[in-house]
Amino acid sequence: MPAHRSVLTLVPLPTKAVLRPGHFTLDADTALHVGTGAEPAAELLRTLLAPATGLSLRPSPDGQFTLALDSGLGDLGEEGYVLAVEPHAVLLRAAHPTGLLRGIQTVRQLLPPQALSDIPQRGTRWLLPCADITDIPRHPWRGAMLDVARHFQPVSYLRRYVDLLALHKISVFHLHLTDDQGWRMPVAALPKLTEIGGHRAESQMGPAGSDTYDGIPHGGSYTRAELAGLVRYAAARGVTVMPEIEMPGHVRAALAAYPALGNHPERTLDVWTRWGVCDTVLGVHDEVLDFCRTVLDEVMDVFPSPYIHVGGEECPTSEWTRSVAARERAVAQGLPNPEALHGWFLGRIGDFLVRHGRRPVGWAETGAELPVDFTVMTWRDPSHTLTAARRGHAVVSAYHRATYLDYAQSADPHEPPAQPGAVVDLRAVHAHAPVPEDADAQAAGRVLGTQAQLWTEFVTTPAHLEYLTYPRLCALADRGWSGATDWADFRSRLDEHTARLDALGVPRHP
Ligand code: ACM
Question: Is the shortest distance between the CB of 313 and ligand 1 below 6 Å?
Answer without folding.
Answer: yes
